[in-house]
Design goal:
The chain is globular and about 80 Å long. Helix 3 crosses helix 4. The protein contains 9 helices and 18 strands. The chain has 411 residues and is of the alpha/beta class. Bound molecules: adenosine-5'-triphosphate. The site of adenosine-5'-triphosphate (ATP) has 12 residues, from strand 1, strand 2 and helix 2.
Length: 411
């Protein structure tokens, strides 16, 4: 037997597919096959040790949920072997296994029992589950009255509070609000540190990269790439970008209006252009923004730019107003400005821009363009660190004794 906590060898899962629903019944009555086999997973091999974390990524229909169900023990392989050792706890499709008529407390008891806890363990763990889920008085209400966010709180609390040997988490977390998502991710990190093995599936590639050491990219049921999370996520993003039609490259955001001759009326944004579609960390980054000043004086036309990561995190926002920059008119009512970052500090990821045309008070918005100029940043290597941005830093060798250092901080 392998020492790995999870060990899959040449695993395959094939689902029977019927042309017509009645074929399943006919097959059973006539005892003659009336289905074809659809291979949702083929020849999947991987091993995870205690404390390992694996992200599963891939397109819709790639086989991610099938792999999770297999690991959770909800599905048996039709080929190969799948060994998962220790107590596993899975957070799969939202609300699976919940009894809608039962209260949150009753469902929590049931969920803990189904995960193999004894009566005494359930009694000990129940307050922790309820505290984590933060359902308040709703804990006593039937689950059918819960919002989807409340269901995911309860399901995650049950799955995570018991510190299983293997925790399997599907996309379901995305249903929770930002506060609970952060709390859940923090909890996942905590139990990872305590030696739990995590399998995490998400379309949010940042979460996969942040949470997982390894990742597997599934493509039409087979392993396209298995390796460290950063490499696999980068390769997947590369492939997605390559098959994006050229017309969908939004490096240049098109005009919404004819610039020439548009001298009257409210100011409007024109072209917004990036100097390149892909960047490496520390490349020169430049965005040129055109606008029509319309009937406004130059002093009352300002450009604001926000760089946003594709999980909606705002990385940086600034405006000509903040920086005290005065726009220049080309003489035809068109103004343009270039926003330049000489050494782009962003780390690997997909980003886009928001561009705002604002007045001198910064309150009135003449025009805006959201989610435009999509671009990608790739860092040269993992040595550049993880996260969103490369921050200037240095390491200093500390020669004082710890007491001296503590005193210095206290002082
Ligand atoms: N019970 C089933 N019977 C027949 N085919 C199935 C069954 N369940 C899944 N499939 C098929 O297996 C393939 C893989 O499905 P799966 O749900 O694992 O994909 P996924 O990667 O999780 O997709 P998504 O990102 O859309 O959730 C799909 O083509 C799906 O149609």
């Amino acid at each position: 037997m392998s020492a790995a906590v999870i060990h899959l060898q040449h695993v395959g899962v094939a689902y029977p597919r019927y042309t017509h629903p009645r074929d399943a019944l006919l097959e059973w009555v006539l005892r003659r096959p009336r289905h074809t086999l659809f291979h949702a997973l083929r020849d999947v091999s991987l091993s995870l040790d205690a404390g390992d974390s694996l992200g599963i990524i891939g397109d819709n229909g790639a086989g991610k949920s099938t792999l999770l169900k297999l690991l959770a023990g909800n599905l048996a392989p039709t080929a190969g072997t799948c060994v998962v050792q220790g107590r596993r706890s899975a957070l799969l499709e939202l609300g699976t296994g919940m009894q809608p008529e039962f209260s949150g407390v009753e469902n929590a008891r049931m969920g803990l029992a189904l995960r193999g806890l004894t009566h005494a363990e359930i009694t000990a763990k129940l307050p922790e589950v309820l505290a984590f889920a933060e359902l308040g008085e709703f804990a006593q209400q039937p689950v059918k009255t819960y919002s989807s966010g409340m269901v995911v709180r309860l399901v995650f609390a049950i799955a995570a509070v018991i510190e299983p040997d293997v925790l399997i988490v599907d996309e379901a977390l995305a249903v929770g609000d930002q506060y609970f998502q952060k709390k859940s991710l923090d909890r996942m990190r905590e139990i990872l540190r305590n030696g739990t093995t995590l399998v995490f599936c998400s379309h949010n590639l940042y979460q996969v990269r942040e949470m997982c050491r390894k990742a597997v990219w599934l493509e039409r049921g087979t392993v396209r790439l298995l390796g460290d999370a950063q490499t696999v996520v980068d390769a997947y993003q590369d492939a997605v970008r390559k098959r994006t039609p050229v017309g969908a490259d939004l490096r240049v955001c098109p005009d919404r209006c004819e610039l020439e001759g548009a001298h009257v009326g409210a100011p409007l944004l024109g072209n917004v252009t990036l100097n390149r579609p892909h960047f490496q960390t520390h490349d020169r980054f430049a965005v040129t923004v055109q606008a029509i000043r319309g009937n406004r004086p130059l002093s009352d036309v300002h450009i604001g730019i926000v760089i946003r990561r594709n999980d909606d995190i705002q990385c940086f926002g600034i405006s000509t107003l903040h920086d005290g920059v005065q726009m220049q008119d080309h003489g035809n009512g068109v103004v343009s400005t270039r926003f330049v970052i000489e050494r782009l500090p962003l780390l690997s990821g997909e980003y886009c821009l928001e561009v705002w045309l604002i007045d001198a008070s910064g309150v009135h918005v003449y025009d805006s363009r959201e989610r435009c100029c999509h671009f990608r940043v790739q860092q040269a290597s993992q040595q550049q660190g993880v996260g969103m941005a490369w921050l200037p830093h240095r390491w200093e060798v500390v020669v004082e004794s710890p007491e001296v250092a503590t005193d210095a901080v206290a002082a």
